[in-house]
Amino acid sequence: MWRETWRREHLLTALLPHHLWASAILITGRLTSAIAKQEDVSVQLEALDIMADMLCRLGGLLVNFHPSILSCLLPQLTSPRLAVRKRTIIALGHLVMSCGNLVFVDLIEHLLSELSRNDSMSTTRTYIQCIAAISRQAGHRIGEYLEKIIPLVVKFCNIDDDELREYCIQAFESFVRRCPKEVYPHVGTVINICLKYLTYDPNYNYDDEDEDENAMDADGADEDYQGSDDEYSDDDDMSWKVRRAAAKCLDAVVSTRHEMLPEFYRTVSPALIARFKEREENVKADVFHAYLSLLKQTRPAQSWLCDPDAMEQGETPLTMLQNQVPMIVKALHKQMKEKSVKTRQCCFNMLTELVNVLPGALTQHIPVLVPGIIFSLNDKSSSSNLKIDALSCLYVVLCNHQPQVFHPHVQALVPPVVACVGDPFYKITSEALLVSQQLVKVIRPLDQPERDTFDASPYITDLFTCTIKRLKAADIDQEVKERAISCMGQIICNLGDSLGDDLPGTLHIFLERLKNEITRLTTVKALTLIAGSTLKIDLRPILDEAVPILASFLRKNQRALKLSTLAALDILVKNYSDSVTPAMIDAVLAELPPLISESDMHVSQMVISFLTTLARVHPLSLAKIGGSSILSELISLVRSPLLQGGALSAMLEFFQALVGTGTSSLGYMDLLRMLTGPVYAQSAALTHKQSYYSIAKCVAALTRACPDGPAVVGQFIQDVKNSRSTDSIRLLALLSLGEVGHHVDLSGQPELKTVILDAFSSSSEEVKSAASYALGSIAVGNLPEYLPFVLGEISGQPKRQYLLLHSLKEIISSASVTGLKPYVEGVWTLLLKHCECAEEGTRNVVAECLGKLTLIDPETLLPRLKGYLLSGSSYARSSVVTAVKFTISDHPQTIDPLLKNCIGDFLKTLEDPDLNVRRVALVTFNSAAHNKPSLIRDLLDTVLPHLYNETKVRKELIREVEMGPFKHTVDDGLDIRKAAFECMYTLLDSCLDRLDIFEFLNHVEDGLKDHYDIKMLTFLMLARLSTLCPSAVLQRLDRLVEPLRATCTTKVKANSVKQEFEKQDELKRSAMRAVVALLTIPEAEKSPLMSEFQSQISSNPELAAIFENIQRDSSSANMESMDTS
C-alpha cells in the first residue's frame, strides 16, 4: 500500500505545473500574515492547517520562506487558545523536516530559552509538547541538543502537575525512539522515572485486591466473578494518563535497547508484572503491550541466549524470564476472568508470546490457566475476537507442552472446544478445528506409546461428530474446509482403530475431497498423515481409486501439490505394499520422467526416494524402468553439476537398492556401463568436473552393494595405466578408485600406489587433483598400509608435496579419530615443517590439516598452535590463525571450552604488522561469528575497534602498475577491507545486541563509497539494518541516501568494456534493493532527501523500471515465504 501511495504522490509532485509552484509560494506570504494577525481564530486555525499541509508536501520548495514561517509560528505557542497551540505544534513538526540548519537552531534555542524561564505552567506544557513533536518528526536533528533538553524535562517531571508529567514522559518516549544513541546516557534516568510513575495512583488503594488475589481458586468454580471495580472513576483524576505515558515509554525503551535485556528482566519486568492489576483498562492494555514487547525482544535473542556456555554463566534473559513465570501466571490468573474483553485478550496474547519464547514454560501452571481459557470459551458475552484469541492461545499452549500435562483437564477442555467447532462464525470454527486437531494428539500421543496410559475413548465420539459435520458441509468457508480435512486426518491417524464402521465412509469423503481442485492439496497431506500412522489404518477401500488420482497430480503445474503427492505415494507404497497393485504403480511410473530434472532438485530427490522405496518393497515393479525414460533421465541427472547434497545421497541409495533387486538387464555391469558409458564412448570430456565425482560416487555405491563389485577395481587401475586412455577416462577411473577404496580395503592391489603416483605427473591438472583425492580416500580404507606411505612421500617428494598434502587433508578429514590417533604426533611434526612455506596454496592446505588434526587431541595440540603465534615468521602466524578457523563448527565439540579460553589470543593477530596475517584473522573471526558466536561475543569490545580500522581505505596500499601503454591501479588493501565488511555483515545476525549500531553505521556509510565489491556488501547490510534497526537507520537516512543516489546516477564511459556496463548495472540494482528496503521503514519517505531521490527515480525511465521490478520481486518473495505448503 505504501508503495502505491509514494508512487502516486511523487508522480503528482513531479507533474505539478510551474504555475502551481508559483501559487504555493504566493499564498505562503498571505498565510503567514493570517496566522500572525490573530484577529479571527477560525481563520487562524484554517491558515495553520493549510500551512502544515503545505510544509508536509512542499516543505523543500518553500525553503526561502522558512525563517518568516518560523517567525509567525513561534508567537502562536503562547496563544490563549489551546487549538491554536496544537495546530502550531503540528506545523512546526512539518517545518523541521525540511528546514535548513539555521532555522532549526533558532527554533530549538527559542524553546530551550522559554523552558528555562518557565514563566507559565500552561506554556511550559506546550513547549514540552513541541519538543516531543520535533523529536518525532526529526529525531536525527534534535539528538545533539538532548544534553540540554533532558535535564529540563527531568526537572519538570518533579512538578506536581499530572498533565505536565504526561507530556514530559511522552517526550522521553519520543527521544528513546528517535534518538536512541544520544539518549543512551539517560536511559537509566528515564527508566527510573517511568517505574516511579507507572504506579502513580494517588486516589486508589490496591491492598485489598492483593489480598483477594491469594484467595482465588484454580478449579474454575468462580465463573460468575465480574472483575475489579472498573466503575470507579474520578473526573478530576488525571493520574491514569501519567501511568499510561509511563507504560508507553517503557515499551519504547524495551523495544529499542536490545543490549539491556538482562537489566530489563531485573527491574522493568517485575514492575510491569505488578501492574497487570491496573484499574484503568486503557492503561492496563499499554502495560500488557510493554511486556509483550519485552517478550518479543527476547524471542530473536534465543539463538545466542540459549547458548550452553552462556547458560552456564548464570543469569541470562531466558533464565530470568523462566524464574519470573510464576509471578506472571499469578498476575494473569485473576485477569483472565475479568469482565473486560480487552483485558482477557491481552492475557491470551501474553501467554501465547510467553510460550513461543519459552516452550514448556507453563508446565507447572496449566491447572491454574485452563479455567481462565474455558471461562472465555463458555462466556456468552464473549466477543468473537476474544474466543478466537482464547482458542489461538490454547493451540499454542497445547503445541508447546507435553501431552501428559493436559490429561487431567481434557474432560473440561473438550466440550467448549467442540461447541466452538459448531459456532456459526467461520473464524471461530476454523480456530477450534485447529485446537481439536492438537487435542487429538494430546489424548492419544502416538509418538510416546510407553507413556500413553490415558483413556481417550470418552472423547472420541464428540471430536469425531463435530469434525465430520464440518467435513461433510459443502457451503462453508475454504479455511474451514481445509482445517476440517486436516483435523479428521489427525483423528483417523491417532484414533482410527476406535472409529469402527465410521472409518470407511469417512475415507470416501476424503476421496471426494481429493477430486476437488480447491481441497486436494490439504487432502493429500491428510492421507500422508493417515498412511504413516502406527495404527496401520485400513486404506484398501479407497486405494484403487486414490492412487490413480494421486498419479494424475504429478502432471499438474503446482509444485507444492507434486511434492506432497510424492510424499504420499512414498508412504503408501512403503506401508501398504500388499495392497498396491502393479497397475497402480505403472500409473505412477508413467508420470515420473518429466519430474526428473536439474531444474528442480527437490522434486527430483522426492522422485528418487520414491523409486528407492519401490526397489525395496516392490522390486518387480522396477523391471520396466530399464526400457523406459526414467532410467535415462536419472543417468542424465547424475551428470548434472547441480546434483549434490540430499539429491546425490538419494541417488546413491537408489542405485544400491536397484542393483539389490537382481532385475535382469539392470544388473551391476549393466548399470555400470550406463553410468560410465558416455565417458568411455566420447573422446570429448563431460562439461562439468562435478559430473565425474557424481558418477564415481554412484559407481562406488553399486560396487559396495554387489559381491562381484571389487573385481572392477582392476579394470579401473588398467584404465589409469593405459597410455591410450583419455584424460576423462583417467579422471573417472581415479575418482572411482578413491570412492571404492574409501569403504573397501584395496591394499590387495599391489600396483595401485605406483599407478596413482604416476598420475601425479599427468599433464592434466584435473587428473593430478583426482589422483591426490584418490590416494587420500583409498588410505582411509586401510590407514596402517597407506598413511605411513603418504607421509614418507611428502618428506621424500618435494615436487609432489602440494598434491600429497591434499591427500593427507582427505585422510584427516575422513578417517575415524580412533584410527588416526596413533599417527597424530608424526603427522603434526610433518605439517609444522611446511607451515612456513612461501606458497600460499600449500600453507592453506597445511593450516586445514593442522586445524582438523587439533580436533583429535585438542588439550595437547591447541596450546601448541597458540605457541606458534610468537613465531617470527608471518607465514607461520597466518598458518596457525587459519588453522583455528577449521576447529570451529556450528555444532558442539569437545574443543569449544578450550577454544573459548584462548581464541582471544589468536584474534590479537588483528594487530599484527603483517597485512596477510590480519586478513586471515578476520576470516577466522568471521567463521566464529557465523558458526559459534558464543566464542567471540565477550571479546567484541576489544575486537571491534580493530575490525572497524580495517574497513578504511589506506592510500599507502594503493599502487600503480604499468601494463604496456596503460597504467592500472592495484589496491592491496581491498581483500582485507572485504574481509572486514563480511565480518560486519555476519555480526548483524549473530551479535546485534553487542553492537553500537551508530558506530556500525559510520563504517557502512564509508563502505557505500568504496570499491564495487564493498558497495555490494554494504547494500546488503543496509537492507538487513532496515529490518533489524529501523529507528537507527532512520536517524542516518539523509547521510545514506546520497551515496545511494550517486551509485544509481553514475554513467559508464561510452568506450568502456562490456564488463564495466554489467558491473554498473548490477550496482544500480543492488543499490535500488537497498532503497526499497529503506522505504519499508515507517516515515522514511518523509525525509526531504529521500523524497527528492524518489522523485528523481520516478522521472528517470531506466531507474523507474529497475525500481518497479525490484518491488515486484520483493512482493512475490514475501508471498512465497507465506506459502507454508
UniProtKB/TrEMBL annotation:
The chain positions of domain TATA-binding protein interacting (TIP20) read 935-1097
Gene3D superfamilies reported in the protein's UniProt record: Leucine-rich Repeat Variant
Which InterPro entries does the entry link to?
ARM-like, ARM-type_fold, CAND1/CAND2, TATA-bd_TIP120
Per UniProt, the keywords (alphabetical) are: Repeat, Ubl conjugation pathway
Recorded hits in SUPFAM superfamilies, A to Z, give: ARM repeat
Q: Which GO terms describe its biological process?
A: SCF complex assembly
Segments for region (Disordered): 208-236
Does this UniProt record's set of keywords contain Heme?
no
- Family from the record: Belongs to the CAND family.
State the protein's name: Cullin associated and neddylation dissociated 1
Q: Which gene encodes it?
A: LOC116361848
